[in-house]
Design a protein that fits this description.
With 347 residues, this protein is mainly alpha-helical. The chain has helices at residues 3-24, 32-40, 50-76, 78-97, 102-121, 123-147, 168-191, 193-207, 215-242, 246-264, 274-296, 301-339. The chain has one domain. Helix content is 78%, strand content 0%. It starts with a helix and ends in an 8-residue tail after the last helix.
Length: 347
């Protein structure tokens, strides 16, 4: 079997298995496990072992626990806490841009945003979110352990010399831009974390798109993947409504994941990069997961979905506009430095 086909089957089966197991076990925020699977199982490498999983869980607990430390500051010294969060977002986004620290930077970002906002509303809510994140990523790794022996890689990936890391100045620029994108969504979450938590997750996903380094491609990739993810979420919901059961949930997720993975790995032709299809899948899960929970709790699914989709589109539009404005400002600085050398330091 070609390596691309094996990767497609491995990713899609891991996502579907993680989803079925998380809902069967009734984990808090069960949609997090398949969401992590779309990111972790996409790497062309064997999964981490049991020792690596324990170390990863320890890192997650430490990084997320840092968000709880901010809760008293947010309650009594709000301005100081917001400055600390902004600086922490810049640092964590800088780590995320440098690929060797991507996972650590991602959970550090979640700790500064989701956990501190949830803790300000309720300590129990914050601990529930931490529990959901830890269990979700553990279940994702276990699902990958089950699937990987059936669809392994050909050989351990060879280390490449140099690497594709952006320069230090470019990394700082992308990290600053990501901070500007995420911080307004975080302020909304402080007002009502239970409502705006999916919006923060989408903002974190948008802010970490270091590959979208120019405004020219930002609209197509960010806005396009968000709209398409919303359309797929609607399609998935109505398909699931025909036969609402965990077994059909697993099968539909497997089918949708097969399509996204085939696009992501180039098995099906696409004009868009792999990150576009990963963003589409992430948007689908961010919208679909809360909708399933709303249905189970007897809430108005369609109204909640409409509000959630509108907020996600608004956050994406803001991210796109922020990229355009910041890139235009950066280009003006470049032009000024060309005509007036030494007048500005340009990354």
């Amino acid at each position: 079997m070609p390596i691309e086909a094996r990767r497609v089957y491995r990713l899609s089966l891991t996502v579907a298995l993680a989803l079925a197991a998380s809902y069967a076990l009734q984990l808090p925020m069960p949609f997090l496990a398949p969401l992590f699977a779309f990111v972790l199982a996409a790497a062309p490498a064997p999964p981490i072992g049991p020792k690596g999983l324990l170390a990863l869980i320890l890192v997650i607990l430490i990084t997320l626990g840092g968000g709880l430390v901010l809760v008293p500051l947010l309650a009594h010294y709000t301005a100081v806490a917001l400055v600390i969060v902004a600086l922490g977002l810049f640092f964590s986004n800088f780590l995320t841009v440098n690929l060797s620290h991507a996972l650590f930077g991602t959970f550090l970002t979640i700790g500064f945003t989701l956990i501190s906002a949830a803790g300000l509303a309720s300590y129990q809510l914050a601990t529930t979110v931490i529990q959901a994140l830890v269990l979700g990523i553990a279940l994702t790794i276990i699902s990958l352990w089950v699937v990987y022996p059936w669809f392994p890689e050909d050989a351990p990936p060879q280390k490449k010399e140099g690497g594709a890391h952006p320069s230090g100045e470019t990394s700082m620029w992308i990290a600053a831009r990501a901070t500007i994108i995420v911080f307004p969504a975080y302020l909304l979450a402080l007002y009502n974390p239970q409502v705006y938590m999916p919006i923060v997750m989408k903002a974190v996903s948008l802010g970490q798109q270091g590959s979208v380094s120019s405004a020219r491609h930002a609209g197509r990739e960010l806005l396009g993947s968000t709209f398409l993810g919303g359309c797929f979420a609607v399609l998935f919901w109505f398909a699931l409504k025909m036969f609402p059961s965990l077994w059909m949930f697993f099968l539909w997720m497997l089918l949708f994941a097969l399509y996204f993975a085939s696009k992501q790995y180039g098995l099906l032709a696409s004009r868009f990069p792999a990150s576009f299809w990963q963003n589409t899948a992430v948007t689908l899960l961010i919208l679909l997961g809360p909708a399933v929970e709303d249905s189970a709790n007897g809430k108005d699914v369609y109204m909640a979905f409409t509000v959630r989709m509108a907020l996600i589109i608004a956050v994406t539009l803001y991210a796109w506009l922020a990229i355009r404005v910041l890139e235009a400002w950066r280009l003006r600085r470049v032009d000024r430095s060309v005509f007036f050398p030494g007048s500005a330091e340009v990354p």
